[in-house]
Amino acid sequence: MATQYKNLINGEMVTTGEWLDVVNPATEEVIGQVPACTGDDLDRAVAAAREAFKSWKKTSHEERQAVCMAISAAIKDNADELFRLLTSEQGKPHEQAQGEIFGAAGMAKAQSTLKLEDVINEDSEQRNSRTRRVPVGVVGGIVPWNFPVMMAIQKIVPALMSGCTIVLKPSPFTPLTTLRIAELIADKVPAGTVNIITGEDSLGPLITGHPDIDKITFTGSTATGKKIMEGAAGDLKRITLELGGNDASIVLPDADPKKVAEQLFWSSFANAGQVCVAAKRVYIHEDIYDELSEAIVEYAKNVKVGDGSQQGTAIGPIQNKKQYDRVLELIEDAKDNGYKFLLGGDADPSGTGYYVPVTIMDNPPEDARIVAEEQFGPVMPLLKFSTEDEVIQRANDSEYGLAGAVWTSDTDKGVEIAEQLETGTVWINEYMHLSPFAPFGGHKQSGFGAEYGLDGLKEFTYPQVITVKKDSVLA
Ligand code: NAD
């Protein structure tokens, strides 16, 4: 029988009756079962979080930091077990799973240093006015399947550091490593401050609409983000939404094809392309298009797609069947329209495991589905451009605005272009670097608000202004 994992509610590891199966995307075998929570289970978790909030909101920065450091240490000390479990449920190769586990431990440690200081608005003979930040209360955290551990930690830690308590729901596709972490931290976090419950997608709207949850922090698709915004409107819950992207990479004619080919490849194919900030449209100047596309394809030919637990695998399967079918549909659409493939495009849906070969497209039209939609798979459309104005217009011609990159040997030029891109993050000559101290958030339909840094922490708080009249007759 598959291992059964429990939920964390009010400091206890509990089961709830019904179970959900969790599948390894490399083998399609059931590798674990998790509780299928109902509204009653959610009520219990929210009640525990509400009760815990009464005392947690009064804790000092140092007390909060100690708990978050304990979470960080629990992850780091058990990294070996955790990264193997993560590979088995998410599909990513061991090395990348290790990166996520150590990254989450590091993120918890770094974010536990964040502190929102009071701000003095006025200190005159007449009055003293200051703004303090007060925690919003009970947070509902909803997490996707591409970086399940990192996303869980980047919601739990700032919630705790701001003085909030949290009820977190992992994706039903990837709840195992998060629940194992729940078990590891159950006696390290005060009861009720962190609750982790699992269920189908249908548990999500119950969280969004719950009358005793004060804020939703969500990472996932834009479509679900819109539903969350609607669901949260009933009682004007605070919301932070980290959503989809269709990020453009722009390669200027002065970039050296030999130097950038490998980095460009991984900017699209890391985590099998299932990264919100992956380069999903790669614009290459016409002067270097042929040389660079050839260099990328040559590099790609030696990259092994396979089971992430096997040595030598660099790209794992797509995480779940639904997403696998979607990526295959986009590839089929490209074939039906006669677009040219430089590599890949020939998946075998009858085989075991949700594998898609590395697929590189040669200059498909801008309105091809494989360009205009977020692929979220190992697919890289290479697109040719002639002028800067043209490429900036094409890059910005999207409902999304998450991130982008410019590749050039002239960094001033790179910055000039970056400042014209309508995205929350732009990298010059690198990709996917996120700092725990810098705000990360999407423009346009890629998000609402921000995570990370003090901007991210503020989203878990309300400002409260306290004004003392100094020369009052009552003083
Ligand atoms: P998803 O929106 O399908 O699911 C995300 C989470 O929401 C899951 O836990 C799911 O159970 C829950 N959910 C589903 N329906 C819900 C509803 N109606 N109300 C409340 N919760 C609901 O997304 P996904 O397929 O798991 O993740 C892929 C998407 O996430 C991609 O679009 C990707 O770009 C995006 N993403 C964004 C970021 C970012 O930081 N901007 C990071 C990672 C992934």
Question: Kindly state the mean pLDDT as a whole number?
Answer: 97
Bound molecules: nicotinamide-adenine-dinucleotide
The termini sit apart by: 72 Å
CATH class of the largest domain: Alpha Beta
What amount of the residues lies in strands?
A: 15-25%
In the predicted model, the low-confidence regions spanning at least 5 consecutive residues are: none
CATH fold type of the largest domain: Aldehyde Dehydrogenase, Chain A, domain 1
Radius of gyration: 23 Å
Number of helices in the DSSP assignment: 15
Coarse morphology: globular
| Named CATH architecture of the largest domain | 3-Layer(aba) Sandwich
Domain module count: 2
Query: Would you report the number of β strands?
Result: 23
CATH superfamily of the largest domain: Aldehyde Dehydrogenase, Chain A, domain 1
Structural category is alpha/beta
Provide a descriptive summary of the structure in words:
One of its GO terms (molecular function) is oxidoreductase activity, acting on the aldehyde or oxo group of donors, NAD or NADP as acceptor. Pfam families: Aldedh. The protein has 15 helices and 23 strands. Helix 2 runs antiparallel to helix 4 (about 95-110), helix 4 packs parallel to helix 5 (about 150-160) and helix 9 crosses helix 10 (about 290-300). The longest helix is centred in the N-terminal third of the chain and has 18 residues, at about 40-55. About 35% of the residues lie in helices and about 25% in strands. The model has no long low-confidence stretch (mean pLDDT about 95). It has 2 domains: about 5-245 and about 445-465, Aldehyde Dehydrogenase, Chain A, domain 1, CATH 3.40.605.10; about 245-430, Aldehyde Dehydrogenase, Chain A, domain 2, CATH 3.40.309.10. The protein starts with a strand and ends in a 6-residue tail after the last strand. By secondary structure, it is α/β, with parallel strands linked by helices. Bound molecules: nicotinamide-adenine-dinucleotide. Nicotinamide-adenine-dinucleotide binds near residues 142, 169 and 219. Nicotinamide-adenine-dinucleotide binds near residues 142 and 276.
